[in-house]
Write a structure and sequence with these properties.
Layout (H helix, E strand, L loop, with lengths): L1 H65 L3 H31 L8 E3 L1 H18 L3 E4 L9 E3 L1 H18 L4 E4 L1
Parallel strand pairs: 2-4
Antiparallel strand pairs: 1-3
């Protein structure tokens, strides 16, 4: 009787292990399907938003060049900068999706770090002024004119840092060094 009970226990244990392994496989398949669905949704959303945003940005840039008064040019420049912010947000979404799927590539090329920094800071001048903040930029004179870097990724990181600094600063200013 002991041997029969032991045999039945082993069979039950094997069946439970097979069921547990099958459950793990089902969970992995479900997770993979959910990740693929999320990735597809992010890509579709990115594509659907990018087209009208590009049209708005182009129209605003055209208006900026045609504007007669400095005030109108300044307002239109704010629209152009806001469209740049939206483009960067879409890039962040796309990059997050690629990061989760292990598809992010770093493309290092010679670039001027000052140009990268100037572009980021200029995108936030209006936001800083709206909050009555000063926006300072300090670049070490020893900084090389060209560095091997993925300028788009560096710009993305700086963009997020400056955006958060301005968002969470209530008075005074933000210094980018």
């Amino acid at each position: 009787a002991f041997g029969v009970n032991l045999w039945k226990s082993l069979l039950a244990s094997d069946a439970a292990q097979l069921e547990a392994e099958a459950a793990v496989v089902r969970e992995r398949q479900t997770a993979a399907a959910a990740a693929a669905a999320k990735s597809g949704m992010i890509q579709r959303m990115n594509d659907e938003l990018r087209t009208p945003m590009t049209a708005l940005s182009g129209a605003a840039e055209h208006l900026r060049r045609a504007a007669q008064s400095p005030g109108a040019r300044a307002h239109i420049a704010t629209i152009v900068q806001a469209s740049e912010v939206l483009r960067l947000v879409l890039n962040d979404l796309s990059d997050l999706d690629q990061l989760e799927n292990g598809q992010v590539r770093i493309e290092a090329k010679p670039a001027d770090p000052r140009d990268v920094l100037r572009g980021v800071v200029s995108a936030f001048k209006a936001a800083a002024q709206d909050k009555s903040l000063e926006l300072f930029v300090d670049v070490d004179p020893a900084t090389p004119a060209l560095l091997e870097m993925d300028a788009a990724r560096v710009r993305q990181v700086l963009f997020n840092l400056v955006a958060n600094a301005i968002r969470y600063t209530t008075h005074g200013g933000v210094r980018v060094r």
